[in-house]
Every structure is written in structure tokens, then in C-alpha cells.
Amino acid sequence: MILDLDIGNTLSKWRLKDRTSSDIRARGAMWTRDEWRSGDDIPDLDIVDVIRISNVARQDVLEDTVRLLKRRVGTIHIAHSTSKALGIRNGYDIPERLGVDRWLGVLSGYQLTGGCCTVDCGSAITMDAVLPGGQHIGGYILPGLRLMKESLKLGTRKVVIDPEQDALHTLSPGTNTVDAVNHGVFMAATSAINRLYMEICDSHDTALPLLMTGGDAALVSRGLRLPHAHWPDMVYAGLEALFPITQAERNGVLAGMPMVIKPAGLEEMRKALAFTQLL
Length: 279
Known about the structure:
Layout: E1 2-7, E2 11-17, E3 24-31, E4 50-55, H1 59-70, E5 75-78, E6 84-85, E7 88-89, H2 100-113, E8 116-121, E9 124-130, E10 136-143, H3 145-155, H4 177-203, E11 210-213, H5 217-221, E12 229-230, H6 234-242, H7 247-250, H8 266-278
Parallel strand pairs: 1-4, 4-5, 8-11, 11-12
Antiparallel strand pairs: 1-2, 2-3, 6-7, 8-9, 9-10
Helix pairs in contact: 2-6, 3-4, 4-8
């Protein structure tokens, strides 16, 4: 069995994948600093023979985790951002400083589309673009929905903001302070994604497929005025592309690959940009 591990600063997500059938057998999440012993939130390491890791937490967290896991599992692959991989050239001035989750998303997205814009809606909202031909051009980092809500909670002490509350009618004005904040945060995030995506496509004269992932992707997707595909396993798929183990992975079949949605036409996007510039 393969254990794929996505270590975040607070939460670590995992899944177990059958190396013969490529089926996903189990999924879960645990607090990053929890001990690795069997339990409801911990995968059974007795059935694992290889591990693939994406880590955006501190280096000492990764080292501690690997040290614990090596006692039980012999083969561990750790992903790193590099200057080149799988036909893609990293656009960062210092390639290793690109968050590895973003790099894995770019790698998997490029295998699927041959050029795309990837958006990961987590604690932060990250956007990256890779052009046809494999040039990663960099990206953007925005505060995520929860982070924006929490910043308003801290900045306005008389207002209680529930960071778990979703905007049910996200385009309408809020009729109470909590809804006003939720709706405003939602519109800030979706408007930024809409605008930045169109700017990228316009400036590089290409209409890129748009791929969404992350815990808030389903919610954020409601406010996008652009064709897009939702790929929950996009970061895991990057691990599969970088360290193929199963026959399906070696054949280029990555977990949960969505149908590629044809992007909007460039002229349509340029008309929308021209309209926003008049506002």
C-alpha cells in the first residue's frame, strides 16, 4: 500500500492507495504534531510499504515526521521544488522557495492540460500558471476565506465573526454584520481570481484551462465567471507524477483526473477586462 502525505502547518492530510489496482482505500487528516500511532485519524502503517510526502510545514516538522515513519516504512519519497521537472521550468527566481504544494499542482495540471492556471483554495489562495511549452510564469498568493474572516474578527472587536459560516447567498448584500463580512470576503476572493486569471491569459495571449483544488474550492467556484474544473486530488496527483509507482501512474493516469473544461475565448475575456477598467 502507498501512503501519500500532504503535511501542512496545522493539518496533515493523507490517503492510502493500492499499488496494484491504483484504488484509493482510505483518506484522513490529523494534526501535524500528533504522534504516528494507529487510531481513527492515523493510517495503519503496518500495511504501508512506500510513502510519498509533500511538506509546507517547517523543516523540523518534516524531519521529525520522516524519522518516526522510517522506523516502520523503508521507502520514503519527499517532493521538493526544483528548477525543472516533467517538462516544466520553474518561474521563481529561487526555485526551491516555491511552495512544494504549488509546484506539485503545476506538475499535475501540466500533465493533464499541457498548459493551465491552477488555483488552490486553502488557508491561503494560491494561483500559478504554466504556459504551453512548459514555462511556469510564477503566481499570486492571496489570503484565504478563513484568514480574511479572522482578520476582520481581530480588527473589529465588537463583531463576532464565525469563520466556519459559508455565504449562502453570496452575491446579495448582507443584512447583518456576519453575512456582510462573509459575502464581502467571498466576493473579494472570487473577484481577484476572475481578474487575475483573465490578466494572465490576456498578457500571454493564450486561453488557459483553469483547475481548482483545496478545501474551499467548491465554495469559491460558485463565484467564478469562468469555465473551470475541480480536482480535489491535484496535489496528490503531483506526487504521483513525480514519483510514479503503480502501472497506471507510469502510464500517466493520475488520481481523480477531471475532464478538461474548454476555457473562455480570449476575445471574451478581453471584453470583460475592458469593461472592468471602465469602472
